[in-house]
Amino acid sequence: MLSTMIRTRPGRQFVQFMRGNTGKKIDKFLVRTTGFSLLMKTFSAMVGFPPMPVLMIYTIGRKSGEERSTVMPYVEMDGTVYLIGSNGAKPRDPLWMENLRANPRARLIIDRQTSMRSARFVEHGTDEYARLWAFAETKTPQYTTYQNSTTRRIPVVAMEPA
Description:
Layout: H1 2-6, H2 9-19, H3 21-34, H4 38-47, E1 54-60, E2 67-73, E3 75-77, E4 80-84, H5 95-102, E5 105-110, E6 113-122, H6 127-139, H7 142-148, E7 156-161
Antiparallel strand pairs: 1-2, 1-5, 3-4, 4-7, 5-6, 6-7
C-alpha cells in the first residue's frame, strides 16, 4: 500500500518534503527516539526494495570542527557495521565520508543504543570489499545501480569499536 501511495503525486511530494531540512530533522528525531526512519521507509517503498536498517552517525566537520549528524542505512556483516558511501551515485563522496577521513572517530546510534566507533576504510580490490559489496547487493540491488551510474568507486567504511 505504501509503495502505491508513494507513486502518486501527494506521495512524491511527501518524499520531497522528507528530503528537505524539516523532513531530515523529523527523521533524525525518529531515529534517535524510535530507531525508525520514515525517510528510509518511504524511499524503499518508492524504489520497491525492502527497507534497510538505519543508524545515526555523528562526525566532526572537517572544516567547521562542529558536530554533524546524518541518518543512513548500514550493513552488518560478521558483527561489523559497514557504511557505504554511495551518495545517491553523485560524483563526490558524501560529506560524512570526508569528515571520517579527517577524523575517524564517530558516535553511532543504532536501535537507540549509542556507541563510539572508529572508521577503517576498506580498500577496493580486497576480499573484504568484495564480500561486503556482494552481501550489500543482496540487501538492496540499489547499490549496483549506484555503482553503474557513477565513475567513482563507491567507498566502504568499517565502523569498529573505539
